[in-house]
Amino acid sequence: MKIDIKLLKHGVTVGCTARTVAQTGVEMEALTGVSVALLTIYDMCKAVDKKMVISDVQLLEKSKRAVE
Fold first, then answer.
1. What integer pLDDT is reported at residue 9 of this predicted model?
2. According to a count of CB atoms within 10 Å of the terminal CB, is the N or C end of the chain lower?
3. Dihedrals φ, ψ of 13, to 5°?
4. CA–CA gap between residue 4 and residue 54 (Å, rounded)
5. What is the C-alpha R_g of the chain?
6. 59/36 Cα distance (integer angstroms)
7. What count of Cα atoms within 13 Å lies in the side-chain half-sphere of residue 8?
8. How far apart are CA 18 and CA 44, in angstroms?
9. Which of 4, 43, 49, 56 is catalytic?
């Protein structure tokens, strides 16, 4: 699993790439990875900004490429 965090002027974006050899469930791994990263950022910053919002968590792509 790879987590990418980009700091923006008014927030962050978090991406997650997950790979598996299993038949199903990889999208849940990626969504969980993003959610945990966002919750960690929220926990670390809550004292600074009480109006933070976690939003737009979504699956952008899922493919059935062979594992390299």
1. 94
2. C
3. -120, 145
4. 16
5. 14
6. 15
7. 6
8. 25
9. 43
